[in-house]
Structure formats: structure tokens, C-alpha cells
From TrEMBL:
It comes from the Eukaryota. Keywords: Membrane, Peroxisome, Peroxisome biogenesis, Transmembrane, Transmembrane helix. Its main location: membrane. This is Peroxisomal biogenesis factor 11 beta. The chain crosses the membrane at residues 197-218. GO terms for cellular component: peroxisomal membrane. It comes from Diceros bicornis minor. It holds the Pfam family PEX11.
Length: 222
């Protein structure tokens, strides 16, 4: 968090015309913090390997694949942090993490949708507006199809918001992985974000990681 805060501060000082000496001191502090992080990579690698060993025994095949591959790539990234192409391991690890998040979101949305349908049937209600049946306009009616499509999309967004609001660990994990994604994309030159965006995303991700340490129930399991 301190390293990315220095990166964000250095970008802000540069934008506001701070003295070159102050900018140099901030860059040096960021470099020292980065070096300190790299000295701790061995412990992180061992932890990632242990996490991969535990994930191998998960019963859900999708979660088993996403989590195990993510931890293995994270271990390789930590072990090879000083090598330029090591960022590819980190990027692939984040892609696996986001794939796992998307899979869990889909499962929860299906469960929530089924629960809502059961509640509607139990109360004697039907599907509102003919969402599933296509309504009275028929599939060939453009005027009736577009509002129904917009309504379906709105309902899906509301369902997604409800699922994420009801599962804070999943919401936190999605935001953290999305923020982390900008860092390897910028380092690998796949999408130049600039030091300001990288610093902000890194700082947000670090703060969220600190929250999972302070409040372990916010950590996504398994």
C-alpha cells in the first residue's frame, strides 16, 4: 500500500509542478519499498504453493481448476518477480481469479433467480411482463422486443447488484482483482494506463487486501 501510495503521490506531484528534488525523493522511496517487497517474495511463493495444494481437493471442478492454476501462476510470479516476462504469470493468475469470480456470480445469480421464482409461485404471482414467455407482442414485433430486452437487462443488473451486496467477500474479490489487472497490463505494454492509474489501482487493491487480514470473514473461500 505504501509503495503504490508513493507512485500515486509522485504522479500527483509531477502533474502539479513540484520540485524535481522532491519528485526524486518520492521515486527513491518507492524504489526502496519495491525492493523490500521483492525480498519477501519467497514466503509468498511458499504460501501460494500451499494454497494450490489445498485447492486441488475441492469438489467443484471449475473452482478447482481456476483456484489451483491461479495459485500456481502466483507462485511463479512471486519466484520470478525480477524477470520482465514474469508479469505474464501474474496476468494469467488474475484472469483465473476473475474467471472464478464470474463463475461464482453466475451460480449465485441462478440460485437467487430460482428462489425468487419459487417465492412468486408460492404467493400466486406470475412472471412480470411476460419476461420469459415473450409477451403478447410476439418475437417479430420490434416495438415490443426492445422494451422487453431493456427490462430483462435491467432485471439482470438488479439481480447482480443484489447478489454482490449479499456477498461482500465476492464483491471485494472482484474489485481487488479488477484493480490488480491494470498493473501487469501496463507493465507488459498491453494497455498503457500511466503511473497515476497504476498507483491508484494498486493502492485500492492493497487496502482491500489489508481489510481481509483485519476481517478474515471478508476473504473469499475456498
Amino acid at each position: 500500500a505504501a509503495q503504490y501510495a508513493c507512485s500515486l503521490l509522485g504522479h500527483a506531484l509531477q502533474k502539479h509542478g513540484a520540485s524535481p528534488e522532491l519528485q526524486k525523493q518520492i521515486r527513491q522511496l518507492e524504489g526502496h519499498l519495491s525492493l523490500g517487497r521483492k525480498l519477501l517474495r519467497l514466503g509468498n511463493s511458499a504460501d501460494a504453493l500451499e494454497s494450490a495444494k489445498r485447492a486441488v481437493h475441492l469438489s467443484d471442478v471449475v473452482l478447482r481448476f481456476c483456484i489451483t492454476v491461479s495459485h500456481l501462476n502466483r507462485a511463479l510470479y512471486f519466484a520470478c518477480d525480477n524477470v520482465l516476462w514474469a508479469g505474464k504469470y501474474y496476468l494469467f493468475s488474475l484472469i483465473m481469479n476473475l474467471s472464478r469470480d464470474a463463475y461464482e456470480i453466475r451460480l449465485l445469480m441462478e440460485q437467487e433467480s430460482s428462489a425468487c421464482s419459487r417465492r412468486l409461485k408460492g404467493s400466486g404471482g406470475g412472471v412480470p411482463g411476460g419476461i420469459e414467455t415473450g409477451g403478447s407482442g410476439g418475437p417479430g414485433t420490434l416495438g415490443g422486443g426492445l422494451p422487453q430486452l431493456a427490462l430483462k437487462l435491467r432485471l439482470r443488473v438488479l439481480l447482480l447488484a443484489r447478489v454482490l451486496r449479499g456477498h461482500p467477500p465476492l464483491l471485494l474479490d472482484v474489485v481487488r482483482n479488477a484493480c490488480d489487472l491494470f498493473i501487469p497490463l501496463d507493465k507488459l505494454g498491453l494497455w498503457r494506463c500511466g503511473p497515476g492509474i497504476v498507483g491508484l489501482c494498486g493502492l485500492v487493491s492493497s487496502i482491500l487486501s489489508i481489510l481481509t487480514l483485519i476481517y478474515p470473514w471478508l476473504r473469499l473461500k475456498p
